[in-house]
Amino acid sequence: MSREARDFGLTVIVGPMFSGKTTELLRLLTRYKMAGYTVALLKPSIDKRYSEREVVSHDGLKMEALAVEPNYSGLEEALRKLEDVEVIGIDELQFFEPDMKIVELILRVSLEKRVFVAALNLDFRGEPWEVVKELLPRADDVVSLQAVCTYVDPKTGKRCGAPATRTQRLIDGKPAPRDAPRILIGGRESYEPRCRRHHEIS
């Protein structure tokens, strides 16, 4: 279908784990699908939590996806194959290598088509992911999401419930040490959302 003007631009969706980033990404892509646009979704090949061929949100939404090597060459090759696709989604950008060429590639592609990217805002230490940090100020639109802090006070048994902007990594129920590997693919068994007050590093 020909269009009077080609839609383009870059939207980056960020937040901690369990804030609904992937859910929002899938919602936006589905909206374009329903409008008759061609849509493709990419994911880093190291993320195999729920499926190797789908992006699956923590609340069970899913969409078929192309798994790509999380480096410049892998992303560039995938985007070249999707040259005729009008809308591109990229999930879990933080797992891609900290290469400025990846940022430049995404920006270049988003001048010709609509691109949506979902990524963690910070790692488990509370430090920004390099590729996300470089992309955010260059995006046309940023959607910043929050989760709900699930910290439980050991004395009162009450849950915090404050807005959560951090991702807490837990090992056997205790905060992970700062020198733990930066990337650990996992879900509720390893992570929970925390506010700044209750985010801990051992």
From TrEMBL:
Concerning InterPro entries, the annotation shows: P-loop_NTPase (IPR027417), Thymidine_kinase (IPR001267), Thymidine_kinase_CS (IPR020633)
Active-site residues are: E92 (proton acceptor)
Q: Which SUPFAM superfamilies match?
A: Glucocorticoid receptor-like (DNA-binding domain), P-loop containing nucleoside triphosphate hydrolases
Q: What sections of the sequence does the record tag as coiled-coil? A: none
The entry's ATP-binding residues are: G15, P16, M17, F18, S19, G20, K21, T22, D91, E92, L93, Q94
**Catalytic activity field:** thymidine + ATP = dTMP + ADP + H(+)
Entries under PROSITE patterns matching the protein: TK_CELLULAR_TYPE (PS00603)
Question: Where is Zn(2+) annotated to bind?
Answer: C149, C160, C195, H198
User: Example GO biological process term?
Assistant: thymidine metabolic process
Q: Can you tell me which family this protein belongs to?
A: Belongs to the thymidine kinase family.
User: Quaternary form?
Assistant: Homotetramer.
Put simply, this protein is called Thymidine kinase
Q: What is the lineage of its organism?
A: Archaea, Thermoproteota, Thermoprotei, Fervidicoccales, Fervidicoccaceae
